[in-house]
Amino acid sequence: MFAKSSVLSILSLATIAFSMPLPILSAETEMPKGPSAGIQFTEMQDINPNSPAANRPVKQKWAVVVGISKFGEQRLVGDDLVMDKAAYNFYNYLTDPKGGRFAKDHVRLLVNTAATRGNILNSLGSKWLGELAGPDDLIVVFLATEAFPLIEGGTYLATYDASLSNVYQTCISMQDLMGTLRKDLKTDRIVLVLESKYSGAANLESGAKAIFHGFNIDVEKVMLGKGNIILSSSRPNEETYGNDFSTSLIECLKAQDGLVPLSQAFAKAKEMTEFKTSHFSKGGKKQSPVLKSNWTGNDLVIGTPPAEEVSGIPSSVNAFLSAEAHYMKANQAVVNNQIDAAITEYKQALAVDPTYADALSDYGTVLGYKGNWQEASEMFKRACDAKPNDSLFAYNYARSLKKLGNKEAYLAQMKTAYRLNPRDKDVLMALSEASRQADDSTGSIRYLQEALNLYPQNADLHNTLSVALYRAGALPQAIEHARTAISLNPKLTAARINLGSTLLSDGDLKGAADAYKEAIQIAPKDPEGHFGLSRALEKLGDKGGAKSELTQFIESAPSTDARVPAAKKRVSEL
């Protein structure tokens, strides 16, 4: 199942996403021809609202810089390929001796393939910033990527390994992001710069259009802890245009040899961004950046040198970085279909850091691919032990238990994954199927309805729910969802065949025949359409038509189809 072109296609355990190698400077990307919509955060929890933020000197400075223009999920790649460039530019500013004055080993750069969900959360959390940043240190976080704002108030940021079919599991929610900063960091001095654009791909591909809303951050609704500052690339009702904001901000922050106050630099950058977007963007629509601050004391000057001598990286963090280097080599080997080489690198990563959860989980995936499910299950369990609150690891472990035939443990672990993330579509689908196999139609339907609430325009989900309702004898509702599936995806043959079968059971013979005929027009070699149509035509009294369709069923069905012998007998009788 491993595909050479994309790591996402190798995942035999459903949505198991790999972290990728460190970024390589990309070629210059063209400026966007038009606007890209941004995101809106309706609420952001305090990072640490009770922390003091007096006039204390900044002892050390740390930063994480993320920019993604290329995604493993090709449907996310648009024509606005400048977010990686924005990250490189911001990194260069931070490490400029006359700019941000950050030590290079104090800045973590994650671009494109390196900006996976696991790498970002590890860098912001206990593996890197949590180990390094002290109570009087300054942290700057720069994020440039696509994002999905929700009507209900949350927002999800796209990572390199994001999957549109399961946004809630593979992207990073702002709640998770802020929770990581709040839980793992000792300092209350955090500057968060967001240059994020709304991803139209979510509307088109995920079936979740009805739940996405807004353009960018509404900072008036963002609750900041003391000492924290947030900068957004545009107002909530405006679109974000390429990297105009970050380019302007960097230029202004570098004024006065980098010793300009942030508030002053932002005010000038806002004017520049508004002018650029009003005069040079497609449609001439203005983009107005926004700043909200709860900083106390003197104006923050990001370029001020740290008060203490720049500290080195402790051995514990160096050990993680060493393990991570092996881990990234392993994932690159997987991409190149060099599975044995990948296993060697995973083992070396785990020899350095036996609790490296991402390495444990991805190693388990590779072992599962090779058919070694016993050892794969052990790796997944260790990943769960290392990160007990990660629903993806819980899901992977559950899948391995099913492969080993341990149904009770599988169901218990899948329910754990559901408790950790009740929005994971793969978990919901797995629990629905488990309920069906246990003859619990109510439970099966409930899980499908929960998934459909998350992805209300997903045709496949409507069709699957239709089948479950049909099995439960709820024919009117089954017909309704089958028709909705067809309206959302007219080429979904399975939905038309399902509609035909449901109408046939409901006594609408002509409607059933029409549905089967439409399915056959789309997929003339699909045996199911011919089989269903033969049944409908025979009930309508058209024996000749029924015989013809049944003959085509026999010709197109595999020889192993158990219905073929009876079909041959029936043809001889018609």
How many beta-strand runs?
A: 10
Q: Give Rg in angstroms.
A: 27 Å
CATH topology of the largest domain: Rossmann fold
Secondary structural class: alpha/beta
Total domain modules:
3
Number of helices: 23
Average the pLDDT over all residues and give the rounded result. Answer: 83
Strand content: 5-15%
Assembly type of the shown chains?
single chain
Helix content estimate:
40-55%
Please give the largest β-sheet. Answer: 8 strands, mixed
Q: Which of globular, elongated, flat, extended, rod-shaped describes the shape?
A: elongated
Name the CATH class of the largest domain.
Answer: Alpha Beta
What are the segments in which pLDDT stays under 50 over at least 5 consecutive residues?
Answer: 1-53, 199-206, 208-225
Would you write up a description of this structure?
- The chain is elongated, with a radius of gyration of 27 Å.
- By secondary structure, the chain is an alpha/beta fold.
- The longest helix is centred in the middle third of the chain and has 21 residues, at 315-335.
- The chain has 23 helices and ten strands.
- It folds into three domains: 35-293, Rossmann fold (3-Layer(aba) Sandwich), CATH 3.40.50; 315-423, Tetratricopeptide repeat domain (Serine Threonine Protein Phosphatase 5, Tetratricopeptide repeat); 441-573, Tetratricopeptide repeat domain (Serine Threonine Protein Phosphatase 5, Tetratricopeptide repeat).
- It has helices at 83-94, 117-124, 129-132, 167-170, 174-184, 200-206, 244-253, 262-280, 315-335, 339-352, 357-369, 373-386, 391-403, 407-420, 425-437, 441-454, 459-471, 475-488, 493-505, 509-522, 527-539, 543-556, 564-573; strands at 36-37, 61-67, 107-111, 138-149, 155-157, 172-173, 190-198, 228-232, 239-240, 290-293.
- Strands 2, 3, 4, 5, 6, 7, 8 and 10 form an eight-stranded mixed β-sheet that branches. The protein has a two-stranded antiparallel ribbon with strand order 1-9.
